[in-house]
Every structure is written in structure tokens, then in C-alpha cells.
Amino acid sequence: MKASRTVKTAAGLCALLGAVSATTALSAGAAAASATPQVYVALGDSMASGPLIPDPTGQLACARSTHNYAHDLAATLGIPTLRDVTCSGASTTHMTNPQSLSIGGVAAGTAPPQFDALSADTTLVTLTIGGNDVGLVGVGQDCMQLNPFAAPCKGKYVVNGVDSVAARTNAFAPKLAAVLDGIHQRSPQARVLVTGYGLYIKNGGCWPTQPVLGSDATWLQSEVDYLNSTIAGTAAGHGATYVDVRTPSAGHDSCQSESNRWVEGYVPLTTAAPLHPNQAGEAAYARIVGAVVTGG
């Protein structure tokens, strides 16, 4: 009988110790997840750099703003070290290769490979990339149409059922995978967040407020959405967290009023680049990314 009680007591003690250990591990994990990142590296293209939004910082031709989402996020979370190397025109190539810069067609120096900013002590990385690999802004500009009776521009890009823009997105996926693997190799401690792209124009468009035919507006945004789904799937398979900025952008596309829009249209109403996020959009993206960071 005594032996039985001893066995039960020992078993109970083991269970208690196990529970305490598990609780301690969970608490430590929660603390780590909620801890403020100490070294934050922001990588990416013009959606992340914030072209023409006051105030410029870094290399002028990169069109990097002190009010892009990386700067807003670092300020809000109190991150002590921010290395923002986002640059307009950047593609996956420029993660590991220098980027030749120009302003108005005039050479304006070279940006180092963005991966140069990564280090072993990096604790947070955000990445926004793919738009230039796919050429979405160029397609959007090509689809500008002042004649409401013109043929849709989609016909230039979808021929005999073959979508050349979607094909470029498919070709981008393995490039993104290589970029994510490269980040993990250089910064093994870092939490890696990959953003998608926002809602640029609502379904059916808003011609002539934005000079793109209704059917083309729907198609253009569908290409952005396909890029987003490609980014999300690739991130999931390569140790990164996808941050959806498209869904929260509903009601904030370029068809909306100046006070409601997060992205500018063909003719900006605020100080921002055409077909890019404005200051309100960058601030909104910072809140969205920040919620993911603090949410664990």
C-alpha cells in the first residue's frame, strides 16, 4: 500500500514538474514572440520605399521616404535599429546584385545589393518584392485609356488563352523562394514577413476618374491578386509569414476620395508617385504589419 502511494506521489510530482516546464516554455515562447525586434532590415521595391512621399532619405534615386511603412513601423514599435534599403525599381535580382539607378534617364549611381544590410543579429526582416519582376506598373500604364470605346488592353497580354503577365508571375515564384532562403541563411534569427500588394482599383474600375476601362480594371487587379497568392504560397513554403495588405485595403483604392485612398491613381492627388501607395497607405501598411509582429 505504501509502495503504491509512493508510486502515485512520484507520478504526480513528475506530472506537476512537466506542467511547470511546459508553462515555462510557453511563457518564454510568448515573451520571445512579443519582444520588440532589435535589428530590423527592410527590403523591397517602391511599394515599400514610398517614392515622392516626404521626406526623402538615403540615395535620392531609390525614392525612399522617412514615412514609408518600415520607418513608421520602427517608430511605432520602438525598434532601436532600422536598416531600410528599399529602393524603387528593385527586383529579386537586386537582393544579391547592385542596382543601377537613374533620375529622369540620367545615371544616378548604384545601390548596393540589398542583402548587404542583413546580418547574423537581424531579428526582423520585411520584404516587398515582385512588382518589378512581373512589370505590373508598366502594364498598368499601358492600359491607360481615354477613349471609352477602345478595345480592352487585356487583349495584348492574354492571347489564345495564354496570359503573359500570369506567366511572368509563375516565373517569379522560384526567384522569391531563393530570396527567402538567402535571407534565412544570412539572418537565421530573423522573423521574416513578406507583404503582398494592395487594392489598386476596385472591380469594374471608375472610368474616367481613373482612365482605365472597366474590364481592364478588373483584369489588372486580378493580376495583382494572382501575384499576392503566389507570394503567399511561396512564403509559406520557405519559412516566412505572409502579410495580406490587399484585404484591409477594401474601400481605399484609387477610385476613392483623396481622404480615403491608400494608393494613388494615374494622376496623384497627394504627394506620392502614380500607381503607388501614398503616405496614408504606407501608414496603414505599417499598422497591418505591426499587428502581425506584435500578435506573435
Automatic annotation (TrEMBL):
One of its GO terms (molecular function) is hydrolase activity. Residues 42-283 form the SGNH hydrolase-type esterase domain. It comes from the Bacteria. Keywords: Hydrolase, Signal. It holds the Pfam family Lipase_GDSL_2. Residues 1-30 form the signal peptide. The keyword Signal applies. The keyword Hydrolase applies. This is SGNH/GDSL hydrolase family protein.
